[in-house]
């Protein structure tokens, strides 16, 4: 018999690549999560996770178990959903900011689609302000996006610091004019970094403007300039530029904004999963093991 509690700890560690972050998400002690994984390994007589001081990664047996763990836990969620008072169903128009969609959302969306096959999920990806405008026109049921600290629209999920990033910070900082890699207007990140540079009197020029995070990341990895992102969403291959070389940036909040006409059961089910997965932070490349 496979224990679902142990499987949940195993799956969360596999997703987070971190025992520390997995414990936070599960609201358990790190030692408890470790014990769950150890008991699962003992029951299966297989090593599932390789852990050292720098990383956590699945063994071949762990990779083989992963899809079965997902399936078993999905069946558990579906059984629970069967007895919910209101079952999510119908069209669900979801808007997600560009920052989140490639690295943070796939697993969440996969689980939600598997759990609620009666929901017709329609995904829109854009900048936060653009998503807000779409929602105001009645085109979206729920938006997950960024807002400025102090803004009131939406319910906060978590707060994140913005940081300056570059593939080679020393080389970029040696340039007489700071080269910027930015989203186009009306990007909130762009507004905040421009305001910080203006306050500090830093000379700057835009060397790359692109609506896609993958395009911006490619330019930054090529050494074209500096990119600003929330710290735990920093793309691999880029290094944070330490203070005081560049001005301090404001934090941002990631929020959920619900339309008045949205199906409450569907929005509630999705929002609950967002808070369970991201309420303690996003998965970042540099998380502690």
Automatic annotation (TrEMBL):
InterPro entries: LTTR (IPR050176), LysR_HTH_N (IPR000847), LysR_subst-bd (IPR005119), WH-like_DNA-bd_sf (IPR036388), WH_DNA-bd_sf (IPR036390). Residues 2-59 form the HTH lysR-type domain. The keyword DNA-binding applies. Signal peptide: none annotated. Pfam families: HTH_1 (PF00126), LysR_substrate (PF03466). PROSITE patterns: HTH_LYSR. Keywords: DNA-binding, Plasmid, Transcription, Transcription regulation. Belongs to the LysR transcriptional regulatory family. This is LysR family transcriptional regulator. It comes from Shinella oryzae.
């Amino acid at each position: 018999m496979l224990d679902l509690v142990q499987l949940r700890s195993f799956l969360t560690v596999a997703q987070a690549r971190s025992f520390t972050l997995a414990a936070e998400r599960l609201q358990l002690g790190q030692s408890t999560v470790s014990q769950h994984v150890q008991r699962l390994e003992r029951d299966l007589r297989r090593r599932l996770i390789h852990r050292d001081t720098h990383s956590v990664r699945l063994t071949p047996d762990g990779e083989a178990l992963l899809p079965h763990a997902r399936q078993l836990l999905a069946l558990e969620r579906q059984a629970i959903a069967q007895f919910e008072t209101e079952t999510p169903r119908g069209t669900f128009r979801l808007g997600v900011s560009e920052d989140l969609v490639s690295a943070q959302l796939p697993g969440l969306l996969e689980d939600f689609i598997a759990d609620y096959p009666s929901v017709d999920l329609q995904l829109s990806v854009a900048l936060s302000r653009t998503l807000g405008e779409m929602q105001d026109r009645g085109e979206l049921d729920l938006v997950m996006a960024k807002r400025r600290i102090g803004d009131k629209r939406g319910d906060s999920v978590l707060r994140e610091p913005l940081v300056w990033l570059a593939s080679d910070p020393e080389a970029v900082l040696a340039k007489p004019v700071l080269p910027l890699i930015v989203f186009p207007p009306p990007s909130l990140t762009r507004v905040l970094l421009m305001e910080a540079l203006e306050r500090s009197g830093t000379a700057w020029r835009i060397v790359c403007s692109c609506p896609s995070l993958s395009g911006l990341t490619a330019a930054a990895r090529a050494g074209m300039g500096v990119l600003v992102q929330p710290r735990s969403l920093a793309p691999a291959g880029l290094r944070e530029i330490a203070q005081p070389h560049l001005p301090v940036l404001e934090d941002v909040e990631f929020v959920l904004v619900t339309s008045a006409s949205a199906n409450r059961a569907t929005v509630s089910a999705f929002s609950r999963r967002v808070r369970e997965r991201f309420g303690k932070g996003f998965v970042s490349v540099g998380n502690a093991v």
